[in-house]
Design brief:
Layout (H helix, E strand, L loop, with lengths): L2 H13 L6 H26 L37 H10 L8 H23 L22 H10 L8 H43 L9 H12 L6 H18 L7 H36 L6 H24 L10 H19 L12 H44 L7 H10 L3
Helix pairs in contact: 1-2, 3-4, 4-6, 5-6, 6-9, 6-12, 8-9, 9-10, 10-12, 11-12
Amino acid sequence: VSLPLLRLIVEELNEIPANLGNPATKMKRILGQAESWYDENKSLLVRCGVKIEGEQHDDATVQEGTPNDGNMVASPSKGGPKIQYEVLQDAVESAAEVSLDLEEALALKKLLDDSQEWYDRAMGVAPKRNKRTARGKKKSNVPEKPTLEELLTLVREAPDQLIDTTTALQRLNMQLNDIQSWRLEAQVKLRDIANALVDLRNERKAHLGAPAELLNNAAILALKEEENDRASDNDENEVLKAEVESEEKNAQSMDIDSPSKAGSEEVASLTNGTESETASKLGAYRMIANFLKEAQGTAIYTVEEEIAEMLEKISEWLTKAAGYISHPAKLFVQRNFKELDHFIQDGEYLLKTAESPDLTQEHHIDDMSFLTDINSTWSSLVSDEKIRLEKLKSRRDQFKEWDEKVEEVLEEDDKKYSLDVLRDLMEEGSI
């Protein structure tokens, strides 16, 4: 019930000559409570734009509707002094002393609820300093991080709030300054990561040759031979060096020339390439892991953290791809056939994301060439590895055909094959 309607009801009761007893007395008492509440909060109602019919409200916005239409809505004027949250809260709580729900009090409560909703969001994005998580440290069991867009929205909405948001806005601006400063640092680190990925791609080419020439490259053939003969407790480089030394000793003991200088340099180049490439891998992948950890330690979820999460998935795929390429023998085991096929499909999906990245906060990137450069860098490396894997897959399919021929020969006990046929099968088996 609105205050004007309550006044009207009591006025009509007073005009009735009969004694209406308790109901009339009760209504007069309620009106007295309402008038007392109104007198205490008149200036607040005016400031909040709650218009009372019959009263002068120079500062209030004209309100639509009549006092008894049941749709009273506060229309606060803008530009005036801010209201303390506690003052508005006290006014709403004191309205409980009135035996009826006043529409004016309900209108104030709506403003209070709206203000509380903004404050709750602000507290979630920029909590008080003693509750904030230090940079680089991540609290356990914390809720999902607020986004940069949520932070910016709160800052934009602050001036339109009826209540005083000075303290909360200071915390929001501090949070915004912190995260924007970190973003500038993050973009420099992302460019460093992109450069490290370029170095890794160059090392892969120097070590394995062009992607399409994988199985024609002497280095990968050496890797295959070394993998077959490698001792379980020695690494690749030591085995390659041991093979060179053994070959030189054998040549000397037989009193013939040692292996050609070119051949020795080829193996040495392979060994050095492996060490350099390993350093590039560790550099790029460690940089990605460290950057993601740092991003996860910030209080706000940014597009830079989204990029870090994307790069982590890419580094995982690249690491596994390098494992397949450096140890191709396991790809020729039947139980691993589908695994390789699915893995190549995963690479195709990654390349599609490079064309149209699925970043929810992409609009916060000021220089889109920054994102284009990063995507171009990692997608080039993924594309190279995918081509190499497809070369291995093609060779694996040839092996499957050869294996089926061999099975057919072995199963037919009665049929005899010429030596030439068997020799041809042996040669085909060297793929």
